[in-house]
Amino acid sequence: MRVYLPCTIPALARAAEAGEVGPAPLTGFAVTPSLTEWYASGDTEELEYVALTEAARASLRMLAADRADGVGAPARRVVVAADVPDDIVVAGAALEERARVRLREAVPLAKVAAVHVDDRFAAGDIAEAVVALPAADQGDDDAKFTVDGAEAHELLWYATQEIPDILEDVRHD
């Protein structure tokens, strides 16, 4: 099953060093039966894009949490796409997003198919969205507009062997 794991640049660096995305349990996003039922007219590619978008939103929240904890994470959303065995993925009706899943095990980098990352030109909008998240969560329409604006930026696709290049590129921002 293809899963999309929200991440940040510091978390990606830790995964590269450890050789796996973890520790478990991990929250991810995938084409679940609930998502397929809700988005009945979509083909697999469209459904995977929805799951990727949900993971990008979760990455934005991870950036906000990092900043609240004093971690100077670069303002770029990161999503790790991995192909994992179905038996380590748990989806349930009680989970709030239709695409949300839990992974029972860490994901070895060998199972990672690609990494999706904002380019440096998105950093300003992503930083503004991170700051606006609390107000957006409280219902502020202007803040919601700012957060939604982050989604106007498409994530770039990188092969797993490009992870060191991504990390080096971000160091020079």
Give an overview in words.
The chain is of the alpha+beta class. The strands form 2 sheets. The protein has a 7-stranded antiparallel sheet with strand order 5-6-3-1-4-8-9. Helix 1 crosses helix 6, helix 3 packs across helix 4 and helix 4 runs antiparallel to helix 5. It is globular. The chain starts with a strand and ends with a helix. The model has no long low-confidence stretch (mean pLDDT 90).
Structural topology:
Layout: E1 2-7, H1 9-18, E2 20-21, E3 26-30, H2 33-38, H3 44-68, E4 78-83, E5 89-90, E6 100-103, E7 107-108, E8 112-117, H4 123-137, H5 141-150, E9 156-158, H6 163-171
Helix pairs in contact: 1-6, 3-4, 4-5
Q: Care to give the gist of this entry?
A:
43% of the residues lie in helices and 21% in strands. The protein has six helices and nine strands; from the N terminus they run E-H-E-E-H-H-E-E-E-E-E-H-H-E-H. It has helices at 9-18, 33-38, 44-68, 123-137, 141-150, 163-171; strands at 2-7, 20-21, 26-30, 78-83, 89-90, 100-103, 107-108, 112-117, 156-158.
